[in-house]
Protein 1
Amino acid sequence: MGYYVNPPGESKEAFLRRVGIVVPSDRKISWESVPKGFLPVVLVNNGVFTAAGICYSKAELDEFTRFDDPRRREIYLVKIEELRQVSDIGRHPDYAG
């Protein structure tokens, strides 16, 4: 089950630019480097649409950042409290508020 950013009243891109911290594209982010209180969000360009997937575990982060995936991606660190307002991440037992 995946969790995705879907902010009301603004685009995913605008939300991430407003509240996220950009991870430089020349870095591979590790689960251990994610600050407490934040989760990585990967904005993936699927051609026709974009998706902003919330990486709620190491396995999810590894899947979204695979080197054999040719899609254009941007990675942001976003406070969990912000993500609860624009996604279903609060349903995940580790991130319920």
Protein 2
Amino acid sequence: MRKNTLFLSGFSSRLFGRRSETEASCLREKARKLDGLAAIVARFIPPELFAKTEKTRDRVFTPWVTFCAFLGQVLQRGASCQDAVRSVQAMYLAMGVNTVDDRTGGYCQARGRLSLAVLQTAFTRVAQWCANRPRKEDCWQGRVVKVLDGCGLSMPDTPENRAVYPYASGQKPGCGFPTGQLLGLFNLCTGHLVKFVVTSWRLHEAPLAQQLLGWVNKGEILLADRAFSCWGLIALFERKGVDVVMRLHQSRKTKLGRVTWRKPKRKNKMAQADWDSLPESLTVRVVRFNCQVPGFRTDEITLVTTLLDEVTYSTDVLAELFRRRWQVEICFRDIKTSLGLDVLRTKTPEMITKEIHLQAIAYNIVRALMLEAARQHDTPVFRLSFKGTVGALFAFAPLLNTTSKQAAERYEHLLLALAAAPVPLRPNRSEPRAVKRRPKPYQYLTKPRREMTVSTSRRQKLPITPLN
């Protein structure tokens, strides 16, 4: 007979057999992990934000419990809804309440009831927490640097997702996946995600960057690649008092040094009122430097910047700053590969938006832990491992499920463990973009799955380039 409750006090677990003892031990571990994760999240996001309203009836999956379970699911790439339900079930069993069954329908409905506005507020809270605590040593010449870049997203092939996020070009109906793009603004001093925009892949990144203009403050520096190097965007940031350092767009031909760019006739998908308010000319500085590092794809890089002081901001100084732009690729790797943002799993655009916000919140919470460890133990924040922090978070979570002084000491041990294992410094490391594992010799899906006929041949010749 299946037992859904923990053992009665005074009775040995041996009376229930070895299998029940193991199952109960796993449930207790899951309960402590969820409670500990909630305790850590509460340091950066107030639980009162998810308090139920008077009109909301009492539920097993309250907004706060659902949020913490969803967050734990996001932090563990590949975790299923069943895993999240098990953690909630274990938490209630540890409290002596047996009201959660094994089915995932209630949890999935509770995720759908999570307010997007509340999730956006939670993201803003943890982002502000990180923004207020940068280390002075991580700033560039005492100034905050923010990096702008984008990445692609894939999601389940459902009619609802296809209506908002169409297939990528060249995909046949039923043979691809809806594709979107995320444009993110990162703080280079802390590594956290400041703000992001999610749209279809068909929209260009440069016009979307105008939506992030309000999250770059006066006196800061914007670092970006050549996809954002357009006259209108540079003029908008300069008018706000933000200096830009961008790679020169490949289609623009200009001389080196200080140059004046006239206002083009095209408004570049900008509102007419904003375009008319921009000046008739723009003074910028163009520098060029060689990159002689083995393994780097580019030998010569040309930058355009509004930092006109050639003494303070020499070419070598700007080259070193632009080299730090690669850190945004590491940030995207953390959020896409470690957390699973590259392939989303929900089946409607509304849930896709909520899942992306949970991914962003989870990423910033991990960054907040890394930042707190870096500040307390005087370690550069980018020397700490993101994946190692996620592992340490779940390893220490069962020890942090109380509000006692002992839990505070254990949290200090967690921060010490994060700072004690810095990532080695490996400058100029050659990491060619090549795949070592060969793909499996299966046919490509060229028709919808129910119409596809698999060849009787066991192997198919794939266009594989041999690796030397």
Protein 3
Amino acid sequence: MKKDVNFSEAIYDNWKEKIENSDIKGISKKSSDLIKRYIFDMELGQNISKKSKKGGRSKKRLVVLKQLIIQIAMFFEQRKISDISKVTEKDAHRLFSDIYNGIIKRQDGKNYLYPVQFVSIFKAFWHWWIKVNRKENKNIFDITEDLELRKPAVNFVYLEKEQLEKMLPYFTKDEQLLCLFLFDSLIRFPTECLSLQVKDIYEREGEVWVNIPDEISKTFGRNFNLLFCGEALLKHIKDKKLNQDDFLFPLKRWEIAYFNKKLKKVAVQVLGDKVSHPKARGKFSEISGYDFRHSGAIHLRILAQKNNSISLDAIRQRGGWSDFEMLNYYTQLIGLSGEIKKESLLIEEDRTKLEKEMEIVKKEQELMKKAFKQLAIREGRPVAVTEKGLEIMEYSK
């Protein structure tokens, strides 16, 4: 069961009820009407472009869509463009270039961390607009074709395991377990983590395993064993007398905010108000529960470099990444060479198959040696064991 930890359903439903019969504040009526039509179509899954995933968007996604497309419309309003459907190609390029370059800033005066989100949302909106008009036999030029989807500048807090251990004494037992679990599991916080139930934790071959079901995962479901906090997690379940259907970490919204706030305070107190790593760029005063995911992945990546028994594919699967892009980034971040020894690429199934094949080859060699020896004896010639194997010796003269 996926827990709505961000209250997306309530936020979207309240917004929809509020603006269904009124205009969106801060933008013109024309832009308001068009954006409302776009969001409601996305809710139903109508007029989706060919390249996009079919089906209605989740309310969590709709909240993001409506926030960003309204903000984009406001940016254009500030540039005297009161109808978002009348934006030109040059208008779009100038606006997003200014966001990328920090000319347009957030309300707190800082640069947008992920300006590419504005570009991708506007492209999706414009492709919807093209499809709507095509149904009315009208051709709309794709002004977004050359817009740059620039990768966001990396900015997160990198926490080494030793640094985490220095921070732990400043937290309650429950908070310590949560910190270790986030670092150990690479789970997404708060969405996936707070949706986990006791029944998703199980024991196998003396280890504690976690099952993240498909329905609560952002990408795909996965199973993995815990390395650092398995026993503590079982004790937590027992001490709290949790039932199978209980949430593992039943934090409320204000408790999530309190946890993140305490994280920042403790990190600064223990580690100082400084940049965590030159390439990660994030300061310890900016840490949140989500940063344990990045830091835990880097920790496992370092271990994988030292221990060939740790598969990179296992780390990728553990984190729920569909490809190796993030792990490749971590490799560069921590200055590793990226070398992968061939034996590390063998998954257990391949290893077992190879061992069986080697056993067959070994038996065949034994049979050949036996036949070779019998042949030599039949011919009355001596056989000696050398470094090369069995050899027929010449008679001494």
Protein 4
Amino acid sequence: MRRIAKVDGNQRAIVAYLRAHGCSVVSLATVGGGVPDLRVGRNRVTVLMEVKLPSEVSRKSDTAAMQASFRATWRGGPVVVVTTPEGAMAALTAHVREVAP
């Protein structure tokens, strides 16, 4: 039986910040299988975000292995690891600029 998805303590702040800055945000935290926590869209660009607490970025676990496997086989847009609201916006903005006409 699958456990209830753990949501990192900083995820709500990141979601609120992104939405306040005009982003669409969908939580994918319950999907499992290494799928990142958030699907974020802005200016017709979608980025998948894995939310981590700063203290857990380098933590090794079975979940981290599944997340690495997902990133290695994902054929869509970028997957980024974020720890702060400002870092999430910076990562998104960098990718929005990459695809701007």
